[in-house]
Design a protein that fits this description.
Layout: E1 5-16, E2 19-25, E3 39-46, E4 49-56, E5 66-72, H1 78-86, E6 92-95, E7 113-119, H2 123-136, E8 141-148, H3 157-166, E9 171-177, E10 187-188, H4 193-200, H5 205-209, E11 211-217, H6 219-230, E12 238-243, E13 248-251
Parallel strand pairs: 7-8, 7-11, 8-9, 9-10, 11-12
Antiparallel strand pairs: 1-2, 1-6, 2-5, 3-4, 3-6, 4-13
């Protein structure tokens, strides 16, 4: 198809019971860069139709020519399940270049705070942004508020733990579980606007003026988080939002 490129599947990794990552490689060199947080459009042939799927890239641009997309297969989404199950290592997948306005441009001289707020698969662009900031902005810090149903649903749990251990003074992660299991003693329930407001009181006004906010999740999360951030009445507020919905296009 015109204006597309070929990616090759190098690995399939089960992240959680209902989430899988595809590690793809661009052997053509056409993806020479992208902005952390952007998405890529993949084209799949399925039952005599071309299925377009839009997935956030969940790795830093520094890992090119390889990149990772992470896919949550929702209940009763038989089409996606069949497409992913049919993929084999080294299969060729048609794609468009990365795109999207939800992204970060890391600048080495920056000394900022990045507050990342997401639930479920909303972590995918956020972890790309976090990794890029940690790689290129040595004076900046990451604060992640991340919600899930239970411990087993936390996508990239080990990767997040490694990020914390390798950057102890620069990464702070707060988990929220709506239906925790066992002896979990952390935050229970959803990420509320009240919690966000309380959390932001730990920052001085000067610190908040050099803070960027990235929010990725369903409408209700974005509305709650936006309300909390807007209540601060910041002069130099930079808030980017990505609504987490299932994006599907079919061409017969």
């Amino acid at each position: 198809m015109e204006n597309t490129l070929k990616l090759y599947l190098r690995e399939k990794k089960q992240e959680t019971d209902d989430t899988i990552s595809l590690i793809l490689e661009d052997t053509s060199g056409k993806i020479n860069s992208f902005h952390a947080g952007q998405f890529i459009t993949l084209l799949f042939n399925y039952e005599s139709s071309i299925i377009y799927r839009y997935y956030s890239i969940s790795t830093s641009p520094s890992l090119l020519p390889k990149l990772r997309v992470t896919i949550k297969i929702t209940e009763n989404d038989i089409e996606t399940e069949n497409i992913i199950d049919s993929l084999k290592i080294n299969d060729e997948i048609e794609a468009y270049l990365p795109a999207g306005n939800f992204y970060n441009e890391a600048t080495p001289d920056n000394e900022k705070n990045y507050i990342l707020i997401g639930v479920g698969s909303g972590i995918t662009p956020l972890i790309s942004i976090a990794n890029q900031v940690l790689e290129h902005e040595k004076k900046s810090k990451i604060y992640l508020l991340y919600g899930n149903r239970n411990q087993k649903n936390i996508i990239f749990y080990n990767e997040i733990e490694n990020m914390i251990s390798e950057n102890k003074d620069r990464v702070n992660v707060t988990h929220f579980l709506s239906r925790p299991e066992g002896t979990y003693t952390g935050n229970k329930g959803r990420i509320t606007d009240e919690f966000i407001k309380d959390f932001l009181t730990f920052f001085s006004p000067a610190e908040l003026e050099k803070t960027d906010f990235y929010i990725c999740g369903p409408d209700e999360l974005i509305e709650r988080a936006t309300e909390a951030i807007d209540s601060l009445k910041l002069m130099n507020k930079n808030t980017l939002k990505e609504y987490r919905t299932v994006s599907i296009k079919t061409v017969s």
